[in-house]
Amino acid sequence: MSLPPFEDLQRRATERRPSVPVAVIGGEDVSLLRALRVACHHRGWVRPLLTGRADVIRRLAADNQIDLADFTLLDIEDPAEAVRAVRAGLARLLMKGMIDTPALMRAVLDADHGLRTGRTICQVVLMEIVQAGRRFLMADTGICIQPTLDQKDDILRHTVEVGHRLGLEEVKVAVMAASEKVTEAMPETRDAEELSRRTYPAAVVQGPLPFDLAYSSFAGEQKRLPGPVVGAADVMLFPNLVSANLTVKAMMYTANCRFGGVLCGTACPVVFMSRADSTPTRLNSLALALALL
Predict the structure, then answer these.
(1) Residue 50, beta-bridge partner list
(2) 8 A C-beta contact, residue 130 and residue 258
């Protein structure tokens, strides 16, 4: 069994038509409004509650023939208001729109009104390589700059939980590094070795593994490295934000792929991708978040 393609996630959401209320921070974006129109009007996935400059949102919608019927607009630029809507039970999802990550995270991490749960908050991306028919989760691609061993442990647990929610009975986790050999010169290889010794429910963990060994069974044969995760990783757990973010963005812009991302470790799933993302990617991220409710 492998992770489901985005077509399946979107089909399941459309069959359910859950009409989940979603609070959106920064609604002043055409690709975002188009995605929400499809998700709301055509597929019955969500009921949007948009914060931002209402006059700008209405003008963008009018200029691009986007119907805002069934949308609720709040003429409020403070991202904390959208987070409070979630806390008040007015929304079950939070969605990142035209807002930078630091401003969003200040609202999410607010001690009194934020979405803290006591767990490590991280971004998990579902990556689908279309031609190869390969799908895998990647973390943390957006939040933790230099995670500690304990944070890596919790991020690993998040990705395993996501894998289970998406239908995997056993999740194969590759703990990533630049080399499969443990060396003092690369501390992340020691962390990878330690994580591979630990026990996680319905998961098998192997590391350190570089990208080629996590992705390609041929690379494993050539390097004569055995193991259940070699060439078959469902999860790629990266050592730091630099390696994860560069890898995922290189794929986004150069490979024939589909992708979507969410924040885990928050009180509700947060649809979380780049402000530069397209309408299809925003729909992928929404479908992924809905699968985790």
Answers:
(1) 24, 73
(2) yes
> What's CA 36's distance to the chain center, in Å?
18
Lowest mean pLDDT among 30-39, 237-246, 266-275: 266-275
Report the C-alpha gap between 35 and 44 in whole angstroms. Answer: 12
Residue 277 has what pLDDT? 87
Rounded to the nearest angstrom, the gap between the alpha carbon of residue 259 and the centroid of all alpha carbons in its chain is 9
Look-up of token digits 């996680």: 200
Beta strand residue intervals within the chain, DSSP E = 20-25, 46-51, 72-74, 93-96, 122-129, 134-139, 171-176, 203-209, 235-237, 257-264, 270-271
Domains defined for the chain, CATH in brackets = 6-116 (3.40.50.10950), 122-254 (3.40.718.10)
Contact 5, 32 (CB under 8 A): no
Other Cβ atoms less than 10 A from the Cβ of 150: the count is 9
CB-CB contact of 125 with 260 (8 Å):
yes
- The CA–CA distances, whole Å, from 129 to 1, 147, 211, 256 equal 16, 27, 14, 6
pLDDT in tens, 181-223: 999 999 999 999 999 999 999 999 999 999 999 999 999 999 9
pLDDT (average), residues 83-95: 94
Structure tokens at 109: 């991490």
